[in-house]
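Give me structure tokens for this 241-residue protein.
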Amino acid sequence: MQPFFSTLIMNARPGAGKSEIIHFLQQIAPSERIARFHIGPMYVLDDFPLLWAWFEEDDLLERVFGRPRLHTTHDGYFIHNDLWHLLIRRLSLAYDKWRRDARDESTIVIEFARGMEHGGYQAAYDHLSDAILQQAACLYVKVSYQESLRKNRVRCNIERPDSILEHSLPDEKLERLYRDDDWNDFTTTSQTHLIARGIRVPYVVFENEDDVTTAGGLTLGDRLETVLGRLWTIQHEEPAV
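Here you go.
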């Protein structure tokens, strides 16, 4: 058995700390990262760059070529709600291609946020491939909507709207898309496994209302080591008979 997660899904509201955790892990020497966090060589799949590319393409189509927008409206919403599900299908496709071509074993980290406006996590997980669900463990970074709003404002850099760590949403868009979160309902049947299309996926919750991810350092490392250690144990426990 390899000593690290094959696939780690990271979910949370915007600004909760997903990308900060990934950045923190990427700065740690591989041997220490495996020993402490069960994270091997990292390959990150994030739906934000895909989403942002649609906005950029639509702007070019309209402004340069005088053609209709394909994906998004002028005020920054998707034309079709099922485009949120298409993003998940795109992540699954990228996952399959990486696994097909990768020469070395790795931990694939899949990052996305979902609110009830676009179907919530229940709908999103229904569009993840079986290959992902059968291999994955999930880390949910928990913050309140109020903390998500605060961090979303703090990280805003209008000069880098395409940045993973510095992109931000207008307050009204954050409220519409992410105020309501179905995580508690999605995981209500078990404290250790969520169920997607009949497949059991182990999960843990990383509490971050006190925002240990912004500063990083020892506090983040210690908490993350504890939480991921628990997730590792859950994933490798014998299923109940």
